[in-house]
Write a structure and sequence with these properties.
One of its GO terms (molecular function) is metalloendopeptidase activity. Belongs to the endoribonuclease YbeY family. It comes from Ectorhizobium quercum. Its EC number is 3.1.-.-. With about 170 residues, the protein is an alpha/beta fold. The chain has a single domain, classed as Metalloproteases ("zincins"), catalytic domain (Collagenase (Catalytic Domain), 3-Layer(aba) Sandwich). It contains 5 helices and 4 strands, in the order E-H-E-H-E-E-H-H-H. It has a 4-stranded mixed sheet with strand order 1-2-4-3, sandwiched between helices. Helix 1 links the parallel strand 1 and strand 2. Helix 1 packs across helix 4 and helix 1 packs across helix 5. It is globular and about 35 Å long. It starts with a strand and ends in a 13-residue tail after the last helix.
Length: about 170
């Protein structure tokens, strides 16, 4: 089983306490890492792989999104790989950073008629896959990434986040 060293920072008062987010993240990302290693022939190093998670709010993620993606608006999740990877490449000791905005997660969960926790799980998996080089900018890549997300979430007992929707 791949080992993950997950660093959690909470910068928005509306999030659950840090130990709760650490436990949730470890379970979800641990399952995602195991699924990739076992089913996608994704190589993992012998040493723990580090992932940094920032749980923040719309204002902060809007600033980050504007600076790094030139999109001056909040978004649900941003991923910043430590090094460029293509799916199937061996990751280094530091995978990268995932940033998630609470208010956007809440709004989207309500609009999708999902619980906050279900949507958060989806966004953690989505952000994690980006760190491994998966993307959804073209239809073929989106299909592969969304299929992985769906299978990983199913292994966690969660429903298909894309049921009845087109690709991201």
């Amino acid at each position: 089983m791949p080992e993950l060293d997950i660093q959690v920072s909470v910068e928005d008062a509306g999030w659950p306490d840090e130990p709760v987010l650490e436990a949730v993240s470890a379970r979800i990302l641990g399952m995602a890492a195991s699924y990739l290693a076992e089913n996608e022939e994704q190589p993992f190093p012998e040493h723990p792989v580090e992932v940094s998670l920032l749980f923040t709010g719309d204002e902060d993620i809007r600033t980050i999104n504007a600076e790094w993606r030139q999109q001056d608006k909040p978004t649900n999740v941003l991923s910043f790989p430590a090094a460029p990877l293509a799916p199937g490449d061996m990751p280094g000791p530091m995978l990268g950073d995932i940033v998630i905005a609470r208010e956007t997660v809440e709004r989207e969960a309500e609009a999708l008629e999902k619980t906050f926790d279900e949507h958060l799980a989806h966004l953690l998996v989505h952000g994690f896959l980006h760190l491994f080089g998966y993307d959804h900018m073209i239809a073929e890549e989106a299909e592969k990434m969304e299929g992985l997300e769906t299978r990983i979430l199913a292994s966690l007992g969660l429903s298909d986040p894309y049921a009845g929707q087109g690709p991201v």
